[in-house]
Every structure is written in structure tokens, then in C-alpha cells.
Amino acid sequence: MTKKYVYSFNEGEKSMKSLLGGKGANLAEMTRIGLPVPPGITITTEACNAYFKNDGNFPENLEEQIQEKLSWLQEKTKKDFGSKENPLLVSVRSGAAISMPGMMDTILNLGLNDNTVEGLALNTNDRRFALDCYRRFIAMFSDVVLGIENARFERILEDIKEKNEIELDYQLTPDMLEKLIEEYKQLVKRETRKEFPQEPVEQLTMAVRAVFDSWNNQRARVYRRINKIPDDMGTAVNIQAMVFGNMGNDSGTGVAFTRNPSTGTRGVYGEYLINAQGEDVVAGIRTPQPIKKLADDMPKIYEQLNDICATLEAHYQDMQDIEFTIEREKLYLLQTRTGKRTAAAAIKIAVDMANEGIITQEEAILRIDPYSIDQLLHPMLDPDAELDVVAKGLPASPGAASGKVVFDPNEAERMADEGNKVILVRMETTPDDIHGIVASRGVLTSRGGMTSHAAVVARGMGKPCVSGCDQIKIDFSAQQFSVGETVVKKGDTITINGSTGDVILGEVPLIAPELSDEFKTLLSWADNFRPLGVRANADTPADAKKAREFGAKGIGLCRTEHMFMATDRLPIVQKMILSENEEERKQYLEKLLPMQQEDFYEILKVMEGYPVTIRLLDPPLHEFLPNVEELIIEITSMKYTGAPQEEIREKEKLLKQVKALSESNPMLGHRGCRLGITFPEIYAMQARAIFQAVSQLVQEGYKVRPEIEIPLVMHVKELAQLRELVIEIANEIKKETGTDFNYTIGTMIEVPRACATAGEIASEADFFSFGTNDLTQTTLGFSRDDAEGKFLQEYIDKQILNSNPFITLDRAGVGRLMEMAVAKGRSTREDLLVGICGEHGGDPDSIEFCHSIGLDFVSCSPYRVPIARLAAAQAALK
Questions:
Q1: Cα dist. 533→469, 519, 615, 825 in Å?
Q2: Whether the predicted pLDDT of 689 surpasses 70
Q3: From CA 726, how far away is CA 686, in angstroms rounded?
Q4: How many other β-carbons are positioned within 10 Å of the β-carbon of residue 721?
């Protein structure tokens, strides 16, 4: 049988997304349930994938099937493709299974040429309208299919408007439009050395090919990489009979959401333009009107639109993003899809819909992308800060950010790579700017509405955006923008508030956000469904307090070395390290002991009732000492400036000691439990500090649960010796203070040998905690800093690795070792507590794996605790 590559809207439905793409499946579904959809056909994603496998050639029978369905479309519309008397015009749009707004290409008014434009003028009795459609088609087709930048057509348009002293496109007369069309065609001929294509079937074939090709354009590839969309899904192509929103003041076009995509508030929300085509709204070329004003302009249409919004939301059981066109007071739907929304809106919508009985609590939990809620935990403007607000635009994407002004997306990317915080300022963004948006802290545009490209993309990324800020006048040649007398140049710092639309001069202090009631409700539901515990990595009482606020049920990693880096302690730590014998070392350790005891006292107190895993000293000792190169420079400078010889000798002695402690490969060197084996007095001091703090808290009536963690164990004998040391110290403290307390001793599993011998190690451990940062390095043979800096991205781009293994667990390698360690450890000790405390503990994909192999808890940074709580529940529900 011949493979079916083309379906009419009458033949599909919403479950066919993988074949028809999201847009095609939803157009078919709306047709099926009787909503006003212009008829059309869909070329499948299978045709797209076959096209790429066939080296850019259409699969067999595709062109015949397109012609067959085109004949059906002509019958349905009572119009003829290419007819001078009654021409059928179509739109050609991409439509992947997963929505990728603005990432691929669209062509409107296809089928127009020098002859059919006359038929359109005759049928509509509006020559100006027909010519306007034709000039739009030439520009769009040339941009998408022929590769001639749209900006070049815009320049011709602006020149004609300037010469004729008009401001707005609709003021162009038929004579002006004819001249414009001629100049457009001349530009095409100069660039391609061919006439603009006049044969409609040829136009359609070229357009379908261009839409297929757009699946692999740069912006689509970047979008897929950011959103983890597979490259082999392909895009469908939708060919739909045109309806026109630019036929006069009884026509229009717009975008409607069934709930507010920024806040989640119930009620129809969106924008529209009278006498315009769809790209005018989404491209941000004109600033549109809020949808509620449609009630004044076209009350019957507004009422019908409200009814349709209610129907679609009830049908799909989710917030919908609807594109519509009004042609001479008749409403048509061009698209519905699950609406993109901010994380805050997603949570409110999910919780509200569960409370309204539309979906279940389980469905509400599964609706939220755990990666996206990170944006709710980003700082907002300090309400007490003085603001120098210079302009106000539309609050297009919530949150706040400060950065240096930059006008070019390439430069934004370069400056961000150099460590600068930047704000991208544009008239309006286009899909080609996506790399600049990714690199920027926020986006400011002078044109466009709440549903413009910049707004939609920024919302999806969790970046603040202020759009439609027409008070700012951008001068790209001078690299500056002005508001009245105020001039802001490239490199000047501004702050934008995407929640209010404010543009503020200078850098404004930011504060941590508060979680909404809906967010707390959702997380409380999530907690009811997850068996996996969630703890936090915290080294200070402030971190521990924040972790509890975010719902952490304990600390899974408290790094004691971070406490050593405080300015009042570092000199003592350095003297301890440089001590020439144990006696001298102990003197300095005695000075550090009360400081460490106070640290542990405060953290354990904040986390009363919950377990606190305290890792004993892990990094190599030389990390606490001055840098060798800096010391050499300092000594050279001292000699040059004639510093006292005694001081120079002291510095030279220090340099010699630092060099002696330096290692060729410190990550695999004298660190972790190896320090405890060779300098047991260091671990003894830390154990004493912990247990003295525990004893003090017990005496004060607090219930504390310390867990002592020995890092980097690779052999059971290492753990056995250090366990004995810790128990001995604990018993001493109990005897000295007359208090009793409970504690456990375990280890970090960070090297492959520990995984392979986990059964033996478990005989000396009450718990395991996977240190997956080091376990990834030792398993893959990667130095993280070197890999990320030099070749890892290329490995991802070339698909050797699917993702960065330091962000998302390498299940096939590291994951298999973890699975082995869990099984071996619990075969020795059934009640062995097992968790993970590397950065992977806050990564949703990694959390799902941790759930699947039976871990007891994950631990992550305090600000990722809500993400982990949600991801753990989703792992259980899936």
C-alpha cells in the first residue's frame, strides 16, 4: 500500500499529534467538534523525516497526494488554486508534535501572483487590500524560501512611506503598493537572478520544502536543545485556506488565552488588532489592543470568542492559546494549543483546575515542569529600594534583572560568555535572536505586545521581559536609546521589572521571592505522593533556615571545609596546615574547635528534629593556602621594592611549603578520608566539635540527629579506622558531659571501587550518600572543569552524550554503578539508608532515576528543594 503522507482536517483528531503535529491535530480536533476552522490539509511528520532521510528529496507519492488533497480543498472552498477569477490562497505553517512557538517558518497568502492578485481584488472589491496581501506574500516568501532577509523589504517599505509622508502601513494607496511590489520583485531578481515565482504549485512545493528545512534551522535546534526536544520528531506542514483579518475595520486578528499566561488568573486574556494579519500581532510589528476592548468594537464576536474559549478549555482540560481571525464580522479559529505560561501561572492554573474538579491532584502535580519552577525562586526588586524609573512598558514576563545594555544578540552572547550580566534591548525580537535572549538576564523591546515573540520566549525561559515600551527611542547606529532628555548607552546598567513593566536606571537590589499559596498547596499535595525524602545541602545556619522554609526534611550535606574559609579562620587554618609536627598542629586545631562547635551548634539547632549529615574535611589542604604563582609575583615585587630580608625569607619559606603540598592531580590526591588517615587529629577535632555541640543542644532540650560522613572512601578498612576514631570521641564527650545522644556514621560513595565493594563497606556504614559529582568524574575519566571548558559541549552537539553528565546523571555508566552499590550495600545491611548529595540531587531527570533504584533521599541546594519535592512526586506517580 502507498504510504499516506497527507490528511485533510476532517480525517484527524487530537490524539494524532506525533503524526500530524500539535497544530494539525488540534485543527482537526476543532473541525471534528464543529468549531469554525478554515478547511485545510496536513503533511505528516513522517513525510518530513523521510525527506531528510532522502537527502532533501520528497518521498515517493508525496507531491501526488498533495495535489489530490488540494483538489479536495478547492471543492471545499469553491475556489481554484491559480485561478484569475476566483483564486484559492493558502497559508503554509509548520507544526511539530511539541509546540515550538516562532522557531520554524510560516508563509501567508500563498498562491498570489500577478494574475491572481487581480482576481482577489475583483472578488473582494478592494484593490488596495489585494495588493497589500501580495506585497506581504512576496516579502514573507522571499525571507522564508529564498533566503532574502525581511529587513531588506522593510527598508523599501519605510522608504516609500517616508517619501509619501505617511506613518502607517494601511495608509499606503494602491499606486504606492504597486510601486512597492515592483521594487520587491526587483530585489528578488537582483538577489536570485530569477523572477519571483509566479506558478502557485511551484510556490507551494518550494514552501513545503522550506518548512521541512526550517526544522533544522539554528533557532529551532537551539530551542530543542534548551527544551530537551528530540531532533528526530520532524515537523508537519499545515496548508490551510486563507482568511483575512486585513479586509477593513470589520476584520481583525488576535491571540486569546483562556487564562492569564503570566498570573494564571481565570478569564479570557489576550490581544487583537483591527484590520491586520496574524503576523502583525505575534511579530510585535504593531502594538495591539487588550482583548476586552473587543467587547466594544465587535460585541457579538467577543461573546462568541468567550464561548469558544470555555468550550476549548473544557474539551482539552487545560489552558488554551488560541489564534483567531475575523473576516468581515465572521470569526475563524486558526490554532489552539496548550498555552505557554509562566511557572507561577502554571501552578495557579493546575491547583485551581484541581479545586474546580476539572483535573485530579495527581494530574495537577504531573502538569508542572519541575525545571520551570526554578524561575519562581529567583530574586525580585527590593521594595525598599529607591527606583529611578525612566520608562514603562508592558509587563510581559515576570521577575526582575539588572545588566549592561546591549543591542545586538551576538554581542549579548559574547559579553555573557565573558561573565557580564546583560539586558538585551531591541525594537522587537525575532526567532533569530534566541541565542541573545538565552544569554541575557532580561529583554526590553520598544514594540510588541504581551504575546509578541520576546514575551513568549522570555516567559518560557523564566526571564523578565518588558515589551511595547514605546517611550524608548532606539538608535542602533549610535548604540543607545533615549527617553526624552535621558540617554542610555551600550554598557550602561539598567534594571527591568517584568512584573510591572518598569525600566529603571542603574542596578537595583534584589530580594528572594515568597512562595504563593497555590505553590505551597501543590507542594503539600506532592509530599503526599512521594516516598523519596528531600534534604538540602547547607553549610550555614542561614542556608539551613532557607532549606526548612522550602520544605527540606533535613540536611544531606554540610561541607565543613566551607567554614574554614571565613576570613577570621583562614589564617589559623593555614598555620595548622603548615605546622611542622603534630603537637604544633594540635595547638591550631584547638583554636579552630570552638569555632567549628559554634557552626555545628547553630545548624543542628535550626534543623531540630531532622537529620543533619556533616561531611568531615574533604578537599586537599593546599586549597586553603595562597596560590603559588601569586606568591612568586609577591616575592619578586618585594625584592624589587627592597622589602626587609626577614619578610622575604618568610615568604620564600611559605612558597616552599606550598609547593611541597601541591599535587599533580589533587582531585585524586591527598584529600577526603586520606587526610583523616594521615592526620587523624584533624578529623578528631571535627568530631569533638560536632559532639560537643550535640551535647550542648541535648542539655538545652533540643532533639538533634547528627550523621557523621566520611568522604572519598574506597576501601572498607579506611572507613573502619575512621569510624573507630569517631566513636571513641563520641564516647569521650558522653563521659565528659554526662549526656547521652544518638548519631550515625556513614560514607560518601564517590569512586567506582566503593561501588564495586559496597557490600563490604556497608558492614561499617549506617548510611551511604552518593557524591555524584566526583563519581561522575572518576567513572567517565573527566575532570569537570577541563571537560566543560574544552570539549564537553562538542560531545553533546555531536550526540556522543545526550546531556551534560554533571547536570543530569549518566544512567548507563554512573547510574549502573549506583544501582550496584545500592544492591550490594543492602544485601549486607537491609536497613542501610541511601541518598544522593551531588548537584544531581536537584535535577528532575536524575531524581526520577534515584526513585527508580530505591534511594531514600535526595539532597540539593536550598533553592532547588521545591523542584526536588515536585520531581520526586512525579517520579512516584509516573
A1: 46, 19, 19, 19
A2: yes
A3: 9
A4: 16
Name the residue among 836, 711, 813 with its Cα closest to residue 765. 711
Give Cβ neighbours of residue 640 (< 8 Å, ≥ 6 apart).
Answer: none
Q: Which region, left, alpha or beta, applies to residue 772 given φ > 0 means left and ψ of -120 to 50 means alpha?
A: alpha
Judge contact between 83 and 119, C-beta under 8 A.
Answer: yes
Q: How far apart are CA 293 and CA 324, in angstroms?
A: 15
The catalytic position among 465, 558, 673, 837 is: 837
- Rg of the chain on CA atoms, in Å: 32
Rounded mean pLDDT of 127-148? 94
Above 70 in pLDDT, residue 101? no
The three grid cell numbers given for residue 394, joined into one nine-digit string: 508592558
Catalytic residue among 378, 453, 622, 851: 453
CA dist 297 and 480 (Å) reads 38
> Which residue's C-alpha cell is 534548551?
226
Reported as a pLDDT band with limits 50, 70 and 90, residue 93 is very high
Report whether pLDDT(104) > 70. no
Q: Which residue has the cell 561541607?
A: 559
The residue type at 869? R
- Closest Cα partner for 351 from 514, 526, 499, 513? 526
Q: Where are the alpha helices (DSSP H) in 333-452?
A: 343-355, 361-367, 409-417, 434-439
Mean pLDDT, the chain, whole residue set: 91
C-alpha cell at 601: 551548634
Pairing of strands 40-43, 6-8: antiparallel
Mean pLDDT of 845-850: 97
CA dist 257 and 167 (Å) reads 31
Who has greater pLDDT, 631 or 72?
A: 72
The pLDDT tens digits for 171-183 are: 899 999 999 999 9
Contacts of 649 (CB under 8 A, 6+ apart): none
To the query of whether residue 309 is one of the catalytic residues in this protein, the response is no
> Cα separation of 104 and 84, whole Å?
31
Question: Would you say how long the chain is, in residues?
Answer: 878
Cell numbers for 456, please give them: 513568549
Burial call 666-681: b when 16+ CB within 10 Å, e when fewer: eeeeebbbbbbeebee
Instruction: Kindly state the average pLDDT of the residues 452-468.
Output: 77
Our answer to whether residue 453 is catalytic in this structure is yes
Q: By the 8 A CB rule, do 376 and 513 touch? A: yes
Report residue 302: phi and psi, to 5°: -60, -45
Contact 395, 417 (CB under 8 A): no
Helices marked H in 90-228 — which ranges?
A: 116-124, 127-144, 150-163, 174-192, 200-214, 218-227
* Predicted confidence (pLDDT) at residue 37 exceeds the cutoff of 90: yes
Find residue 769's DSSP bridge partners.
748, 835
Question: What is the arrangement of strands in the sheet containing 235-241, beginning at the earlier edge strand?
Answer: 6-8, 40-43, 235-241, 90-96, 106-110
The rounded distance, in Å, linking the Cα atoms of 708 and 168 is 72
pLDDT over threshold 60, residue 823: yes
Which of 411-420, 637-646, 852-861 shows the lowest per-residue confidence on average (mean pLDDT)? 637-646
Q: Cell 560518601 belongs to which residue? A: 748
Enclosing H/E stretch for 254: strand 252-259
Over 80: is that where the pLDDT of 286 sits? Answer: no
Query: Residue 282 pLDDT > 60, yes or no?
Result: no
Residue reference for cell 502557485? 200
Give residue-wise pLDDT tens across range 208-255. 999 999 998 888 888 887 777 888 899 999 999 999 998 888 999 999
Task: Look at residue 832 and tell me whether its pLDDT is greater than 60.
Answer: yes
DSSP secondary structure string for all residues of 81-127: TT-SSSB--EEEEEEESS--TTTS-EEEEET--TTHHHHHHHHHT-H
User: What is the model's pLDDT at position 653?
Assistant: 86
